[in-house]
Each structure stands twice: as structure tokens, then as C-alpha cells.
Amino acid sequence: MTGNTAAPNTAATNTPAPKTAASSTTGPKAGTDAIYKGLAGVVVDTTAISKVVPETNTLTYRGYPVPELAEKCSMEQVAYLLWHGELPNDLQLEQFSQRERAARRLDRSAQSVLARTPETCHPMDVVRTMISYLGTEDPDEDLSTTELLLAKSQRMFAVLPTIVAADLRRRRGLEPIAPHHGLGYAENFLYMCFGEVPDEVIVRAFAKSMVLYAEHSFNASTFAARVVTSTGSDIYSAVTAAIGALKGPLHGGANEAVMHDMIEIDRPERARGWLEEKLTAKEKVMGFGHRVYKRGDSRVPTMYQALREVSEHLGETKWLKIYAELEDEMASRTGIRPNLDFPTGPAYYLMGFDIPMFTPLFVMSRVTGWTAHIIEQTESNALIRPLSAYSGPQQRSVPA
Ligand SMILES: CC(=O)SCCNC(=O)CCNC(=O)[C@H](O)C(C)(C)COP(=O)(O)OP(=O)(O)OC[C@H]1O[C@@H](n2cnc3c(N)ncnc32)[C@H](O)[C@@H]1OP(=O)(O)O
Ligand SMILES: O=C([O-])CC(=O)C(=O)O
Predict the structure, then answer these.
(1) If you take atom 48 of ligand 1, which residue's CA is the nearest one?
(2) What is the average pLDDT across 264-280?
(3) N or C: which end of the chain has fewer CB within 10 A?
(4) What is the distance in A from the centroid of ligand 1 to the CA of 155?
(5) What is the mean pLDDT of the segment spanning 316-344?
(6) Residue 140 pLDDT grade (very low, low, confident, very high; cuts 50, 70, 90)
(7) Each residue of 26-38: b (16+ CB within 10 Å) or e?
């Protein structure tokens, strides 16, 4: 199935009643005048990569339940699964890991581009710029066989941690640390950030967050990547667009906003009053709500458990208490549940990351899902180009 049908797809479950175009004379042709603002409830295409079932609170990658993957698999295994459709056997994992480790280094020209990005800009602007720059270095930029797309995907996956860690360190006035080829993906990244591999509890919690963030069907950033891919553009352009979409606070940027809010609240006993003020002012509470899940995000229990383990390990339970107060009060006042960004915000903070680095951590993981979708879109492409209902002035003449 492709997304180029004239009328909205009616295969969607829970499809909301469409709005209709304001004027039948200026609006679109009969049969095309339904408006699904924000594409809410619209099924645009099929995907074999992941399945979100809000009714049962289930999320699977290629058929595997994500909480199980987060418990039992490394990020390398999950990346392989998303790209190849199957978990790797021992030999495949060994070969995949070797290629990942070999591609971690940032070459000198890329290092100098990174160094020239202003430290005053948001770190998401740095990763966006760096992915765009990597495209300029790739002689096969415009070639899109599945084999080449997989190689480019793996390159971005391998090098993004090096970029994010170098950016984190320079903002702290520290020299970058070169990748450690003896360490796996999660350990190596934490080592490049902090100069040592932290305790096992921290490594496990971080690795789980990477698995949980990796993929989530047609979310806004993945859809942005698919739109760019659908025009026949290159993978770096598509990932650059996806990074731009993820930056927004209604999407990936929420994990940073959550931590800013928790710091503002500061004490658990202030949380309920703070929330009341937000709701009275009709402001969105960051880290709550979801376009698809209406009864809670399937990934939250796993990430909450990781947050809990990190909090108890470090003996710092203040954020956990603020979390509980907000979750409880929000549920009783609105029925709206936390999304994945709610537990990851304080978890990343406790792990020692600076708040503006939180969404780049999301990029490091989601690049696997984005590129799996870019490959899927390329293999079964249809230009993504919806219709609009015109609502401007009637046709008129330019004054003489
Ligand atoms: C990894 C991720 O990207 S997960 C999402 C991260 N984003 C956030 O946490 C930002 C905060 N949340 C939100 O803004 C929203 O819940 C979204 C954008 C994620 C989903 O929104 P939508 O599906 O478009 O639902 P919409 O925003 O229309 O909300 C429906 C109703 O619930 C309310 N609502 C939804 N989320 C929230 C929230 N976080 N705080 C307060 N009210 C909320 C809306 O105000 C709206 O109420 P109304 O019908 O009285 O106007
Ligand atoms: O699915 C969405 O709309 C947002 C989300 O949770 C994600 O991208 O992980």
C-alpha cells in the first residue's frame, strides 16, 4: 500500500471524525475535503519495523517486545535487528560490532567543523550540522542501494556518540577523548563523556534508554525523514530533517524540558502546587501525554525502573519523589500519563549529563529507527504529498 491515494485512508482504527473544508467553491474536489489536522489518526503507509498497540500498551521492534529487548539485548543487537529484520547470531554480531568500532572516529575535517560551531548554540544544532557535514564528505551521497544505505546508517550510528561526547566535553572546557575500541557502544560513549566507564547500574540504565528510544513507528521525526526520502533525496538530508523535528519540545526536546521543570519545582512538596498553576494557566506539562498512547506509554515502566535503580544506587531520590507527586496529581486531575521523556529526563541528569545534551542522546539512538524507515521508504517509495484546503482570499487582480 502506498500513501498517494486521493482520499484519506479509512483503514485507520480510531480515526477521528474529519473536519471539512470551509468553502466548497475554493476547497478541494469532492471526496478530498476531509481535513485531518496534524494527520491525527491517519494511516499513511505500512511498516514492518515496529508496531505500537495503544489498547494493549505494547510496542514491538520487528515482532520482539521492547521491554524484553531492553532487558536482554545491547544497542548493537537492536540496531542490527531494526536494519536487518532479525537479531544477529554470534558471528553476525561480532562482525557488526567490528564495523561499528572501526567507524567511530571523527576525521580531522569533521573535528574542525565541530570546533567551529559556536558553544552558545544548542547541542542539537551541532548534531544537525555534523550529520549534514558528513553528507558532504560521502562520495556516494546520492546513491541509495540498500547495501549503501545500510553502510551510511551504520556510519552515522557509530560516529554520533563521538560527536555528542566531544561536544559535551568542550562545553565543559575539556579535550575530547578518542573512542575506546575495547568497549561496547554504551560503555564507550560513557567513557568518551566522563573519562571512565561508570558503575554497572549506570551503564545498564543508559543502555536501556538507548534501546527504548530507538524506534517508534511514524512519529514526527521519522515521518520527516520519510518525507525527505520520498522525494528521492539522500539519507543525510533525511536524517538532518529528522534531527530538526526531534528538537522540538513537543517531541524529543521534552526530555530536557522535564528536567528544567523538576529543577524549578525543586522540592517534592512543591510539585502539586506547581502542577496546579500549570494546568490553571492551560500550559502543557512536559513529559506527559502522547499522540498515540492515551493510557500510558509502553516504554515508561522499563525506564522508570532504570531511573529508580540509578536513584537508589546514587542515594539521590529527590527526583523520584517529584516524579511520583507529578504523576499522581496529573493522573487524578487530567488522566494524562507520562511518556518516555518523563523518566529519561531525571535519569540522564543523575547519570551526569548536562540538560542540553539530553535530546542529542535521543538522536544517537533514534538514528537507527530513522534510517530503517529511510531504507523501507526507499524500497517501496511513493512521493509524500498531501492536499490542503485553501482558506485564503478569493482570486483577485493585482492593483494597477
Ligand atoms: C518521545 C516523544 O516525543 S513523547 C512526546 C513528548 N512531548 C511532550 O511530553 C510534550 C507535552 N505533551 C504534549 O504536548 C501532547 O501530549 C503531545 C503533543 C505529545 C500529543 O498531543 P496530541 O495528540 O496532539 O494531543 P493534544 O495536544 O491535542 O491533547 C489533547 C488534550 O489533552 C491535553 N494535553 C495533552 N498533553 C498534555 C500535557 N502534557 N499537559 C497538559 N495537557 C495536555 C491537551 O491540552 C488537550 O486538551 P483539550 O482537549 O482540553 O484541548
Ligand atoms: O510516537 C511519537 O509520536 C513520539 C514518541 O513517543 C517517539 O517518537 O518515541
Answers:
(1) 282
(2) 98
(3) C
(4) 35
(5) 98
(6) confident
(7) ebbeeebbbbbee
Query: 167 and 80 in one domain?
Result: yes
Percentage of residues of the chain with pLDDT beyond 90: 89
Enter the pTM of the model: 0.93
* Residue span of the structural domain in which 291 resides: 254-351
When pLDDT is cut at 50, 70 and 90, the band that residue 18 belongs to is low
ipTM of this model?
Answer: 0.98
Rounded to an integer, the average pLDDT of 250-268 is: 97
170 CA distance to ligand 2 centroid (A)?
30
- Tell me: do 212 and 262 sit in the same domain: no
CA 164 to centroid of ligand 2, rounded, Å: 22
Partnered with residue 61 across adjacent β-strands are 50, 64
Among the options 167, 234, 297, 341, which is catalytic? 341
Q: Which of 44, 39, 33, 32 is nearest to 16 (CA)?
A: 39
The residues facing 50 across adjacent strands are 61
Stretch 284-313: mean pLDDT, rounded? 97
CB 66 within 8 A of CB 212: yes
* Per-residue pLDDT tens digits for 355-371: 999 999 999 999 999 99
| 123 close to ligand 1 (CB < 6 Angstrom) | no
Q: What is the pLDDT of residue 19?
A: 54
- Cα separation, 355 vs 256, in Å, equals 6
Average pLDDT over the chain reads: 93
Reference 129, options 358, 353, 356, 360; nearest CA is 360
The number of distinct structural domains making up the chain is: 2
Q: Does 36 reside within a domain?
A: no
Asked if residue 327 and residue 311 are part of one domain, the reply reads: yes
- Dist. CA 166–CA 160, nearest whole Å: 10
- The reply to whether 140 belongs to the active site is no
Which CATH number belongs to the domain containing residue 278 in this structure?
1.10.230.10
Of 340, 358, 364, 366, best ligand 2 pocket probe by most atoms within 8 Å of the beta carbon:
340
Tell me if residue 341 is catalytic. yes
The CATH number linked to 126 is: 1.10.580.10
**Atom in ligand 2 nearest the alpha carbon of residue 217:** 1
Residue 1: per-residue pLDDT: 29
Is residue 10 over pLDDT 90? Answer: no
* CA-proximal residue: ligand 2, atom 6 (nearest): 216
Nearest-5° Cα angle at 228, 223 to 231? 125
